[in-house]
Automatic annotation (TrEMBL):
Pfam families: NUDIX (PF00293). It comes from Roseofilum halophilum BLCC-M91. The lineage of its organism: Bacteria, Bacillati, Cyanobacteriota, Cyanophyceae, Desertifilales. Keywords: Hydrolase, Magnesium, Metal-binding. This is NUDIX hydrolase. It comes from the Bacteria.
Amino acid sequence: MDAQPTEVALAVLYRENRYLMQLRDRIPGILYPGFWGLFGGHLEPDESPDEGMRRELLEEIGYCPPELHKFGCDTDPGIVRHIYHGPLTVGLEGLILGEGWDMGLIPPEQVQEGEAFSVKANEVRPLGTPHQRIVLSVLNAGLG
């Protein structure tokens, strides 16, 4: 019997042609430690992707945009990423970082380059490969 894939919900939030990303903690054992990624996370048992996305955003940044739309799914072996997009209607000062090392509004050029500067880390950090791919898909669709 095949194992069920892990399901996560991730948000591509944008403001003024920049994309909100989270610098993940440097905790051993997590995926992409110290890399830029998207806010979101694992779905709870019996939780829909819509419910999980809203819950994760409230837990991680204390905010869920009034408009949040399903973009599609991104898959790798063993994982299904439900992708959402929407405008970030508040500035970074209106968010409460509840998970992660840093957050920032990353311009498209840095998403394409695959790295961005973190004020808190005081260094350039790489983007996680799937997160970069997802943001580029949203950008290429003309969103943000």
